[in-house]
Amino acid sequence: MTIGFRTIKTAVGVSIAIWLAHSLSLEFYASAGILTLLCIQKTRKQSLAAIWERFLACLVGIALSGAMFHFFGHHPLIFIPLYMIFIPICVKLKLHGGIASSSVIIMHIFMNGSLDLAFLINELGIILIGLGIALIVNVYMPGIDKQIYQYKEEINRNMSIILCQFSRYLMEGYGLWDGKEMLILSKQLEQAKNLAILEVENNMTHRDNPFYFYFEKKQRQHQILERMLALVSRVDTTLEQGIRIGRLIDELGRDLQVGINLTDYQDKLKAIREYHKQLPLPSTRAEFENRAHLFALANELETFIEGM
């Protein structure tokens, strides 16, 4: 069992909120801890949204419950019409996440029997302490740059393996690769992009984050690799054209992890295309189909290189 950083923040935040509310001699002081608990989220953006949502919901709850208890009494059945009105209002105002936290304040008003100025100040104090402590503890978020860079290395390594397997098949006809790196790569890209989104929301930069765009680019390259795989698998014989493309793919795969010269690879691919143009027309249907697949593969390879 592991204790995450969010768990530690929650435990510390709840304790501080309760301690502070108790130190100020507020009634129902433990409820400040509940409000803090409900507002600690994964990212700063989510936390700020949750705090604002719960604050507004609490104000709506105080106003509505105070009025209904005043005019219709404090009978338990009053909660039926109260929530039939309160919940739709919160949903309409997009405050549905604050229904639970505001219910804590509504119960306080019900149990107190009246909503006078002193008790209103008490409840506002609980709200401000609970939400305020949540805001403070959520200011610090652990850096995830190290995890992101690790994903970048693993993704490039898997892409390199995939390209080298393509190359090996085209040059040697080796077809025993199980393709597991394709599945691993897909999962890694999804996890890495989710991590990048967390980084975006922690820094409140919307989506102009370089990590986010980097993994979006890698996802597009993964889609190209999937199309390349389909084309490579359709080539059922070793041809000189395939060997030349295979060599270029092998070189690309080896250089992928250390950085490549885009112009250099574009020139090499252009030279291969020129070689293809000088070849005589295919003499059999099988050769025609194989060369057509290689031509399409060269197009996909060009798209892959341009997206580097």
TrEMBL record:
- TM segments? 16-40, 52-72, 78-96, 117-141
Where does the record say this protein resides?
Cell membrane
* Membrane topology, record value: Multi-pass membrane protein
Taking every annotated instance into account, which residue ranges of this chain make up the domain Putative aromatic acid exporter C-terminal?
Answer: 145-306
Could you tell me the keywords of this UniProt record? Answer: Cell membrane, Membrane, Transmembrane, Transmembrane helix
A Pfam family annotated for this chain is ArAE_1
Q: In the UniProt record, does the keyword Cell membrane occur?
A: yes
The answer to whether UniProt assigns keyword Lipid metabolism to this entry is no
Q: What is this protein called?
A: Aromatic acid exporter family protein
